[in-house]
Amino acid sequence: MQIKSLAEYEETYKFSVDHPEEFWAGIAENFLWKKKWDKVLSWNFTEPKIKWFEGAKLNITENCLDRHLEKNGDKPAIIWESNDPEKPSVTLTYKILHEQVCRFANVLKKNGVKKGDRICIYMPMVPELAIAVLACARIGAVHSVIFGGFSAKSIADRINDSACKLVITADGSFRGNKQIQLKEVIDDALIGCPTVEKVIVLTHTRTPVSMLKGRDLWYEDEIKLVDTVCPAEEMDAEDMLFILYTSGSTGKPKGVVHTVGGYMVYAGYTFSNAFNYQPGEVFFCTADIGWITGHSYIVYGPLSQGATTLIFEGIPTYPTPSRFWEIVEKHKVNILYTAPTAIRSLMSFGTEPLNGIDMSSLRVLGSVGEPINEEAWHWFDEEVGHKKCPIVDTWWQTETGGLMISPIAFVTPLKPACATLPLPGVQPLLVDEQGKEIEGNGVNGNLCIKFPWPGMLRTTYGDHERCKQTYFSTYPELYFTGDGCMRDENGYYKITGRVDDVINVSGHRIGTAEVENAINMHAGVVESAVVGFPHEVKGQGIYAFVIYPKIHDEPELTKKDILQTVTRVIGAIAKPDKILFVSGLPKTRSGKIMRRILRKIAEGETTSLGDTSTLLDPAVVDEIIAAAQQL
Ligand code: WTA
């Protein structure tokens, strides 16, 4: 599946556009199917309705586990590195992982889980998280993993949206010098979740937890009661594999739905190809499994290719900012896939933390989650890769399932801070506000995709209309990404950032409407408006303009109260970096907030604010500017 030269890329790309069905059928041949497909693709972007490999039967865990057993059963599948560097790391071979997945799949079955049931997973970054994910897939249950930084209320919303039957969690998790009481958060969430019948609790931090009779079970006890044989459920290619909630510009987070066959082919193919993974190599993706990057490039992509994937529980700066580099040295990591925000944060400590650490095992570097700035790109290239490791700057989304626009390591000529070219099978185009295609090079526009790819979302859980409205209605017959993009003189794509009301904080997608709703839930708040602003480490920070007429004591304390409310409603990841109390917001005569003006003010701009003549009360702008300068 791996492309070896630029000429081969060009030829493959052309073939994938001229003959997409033949192309993807050829790629799919590299996977294990119980029955091959009757039809490679049927689709329209109007409803939308997308089906890949219709009629095919498979189980993704047979591709990720069983098929490697004979030749590579004793090869490490997962290497786990604890938050605490003093704790020994853990290696699970393919044989052991297979056994543990089967065992836990039997635990799920024993507790009444059937094909199609939805299971919520809220766990630390430990091997059992990957085991839980794969155990669901083994028996055809649909997993919905929730990132450990979300609050009880966010979890409850997600559990209720997809009517989860069972929750898999742990007592707590370690992150740097902090502990998060996961079970306690789950207990709070479940007060409002009538569909959940059972909770399976892994022992990890061994902090005291409440265990409810008839509902809560210990992981360690349960796995003793079952055996290790669990035949893989036969799934249709278009059966649901997982739901992953993500933020958009309006309303609640939506459950992006991925299906078994297409997702597997896409995650496996892009992993093998873009990173140029070689047998025996150690792949270290620093994302959390709670996000799509972890789903596709810690679990499914690497394991489907028989790779060794490293799971790290902690954070890059604990106990020191050498931690990532020490892990690279200790486990002889060959491919390191991380986020610009981590690079910027580590860069701020200078090169001292890298001194004396042998990172010669590194061969390929990767970046994901947000646009990477040139300074961070060069630092990554020079200080980490010693200018000998290609950096693949991979652009993609929760909705795309896998990499879309990205260099192929050792094939695509690189350009700093640029996602370069579409991978085979990906047909991007740029459109103007009216949806007219912008042709040629040296142009800017909104990034769309005009043809389906196997890893694309199929729907948003329980609300297909929302999927249609969000992605397929802005521009008819096109999938709209929500990103702005430049195509340079050489036809290279460079993502410029979101063009909708989504902000990207440390690579996490946060909808401004969600944060506003959370702030507005705070007693005393009349109205608020949230925008992003450039942040040196996080990429973007959250700036909230808040109308709060009767501050009862010190404004600084009131701000902390508001942060507490946001933490309760969404989670600590959505806390605004700046709060500015204002007496009014810039609105048009029809009552719409002019965020464009607020964005400029948040960026520190005070003069060229553009046309303000349509504002209901232009004076409010001067007042906000004056207040912002005080902040
Ligand atoms: C942004 C993460 C520039 C983009 C895989 C996208 C990027 C959103 C890049 C999706 C990149 C991701 N360069 N921007 N290499 N990768 N983005 O769903 O705005 O968490 O729409 O998926 O992150 O975020 P999501």
TrEMBL record:
GO terms for molecular function: acetate-CoA ligase activity; AMP binding; ATP binding. CDD domains: ACS (cd05966). Pfam families: ACAS_N, AMP-binding, AMP-binding_C. InterPro entries: Ac_CoA_lig, ACAS_N, AMP-bd_C, AMP-bd_C_sf, AMP-binding_CS, AMP-dep_synth/lig_dom, ANL_N_sf. Its EC number is 6.2.1.1. Keywords: Acetylation, ATP-binding, Ligase, Nucleotide-binding. Residues 66-452 form the AMP-dependent synthetase/ligase domain. Residues 514-592 form the AMP-binding enzyme C-terminal domain. Residues 9-64 form the Acetyl-coenzyme A synthetase N-terminal domain. It comes from the Bacteria. The keyword Nucleotide-binding applies. Belongs to the ATP-dependent AMP-binding enzyme family. This is Acetate--CoA ligase. It comes from Pedobacter cryoconitis.
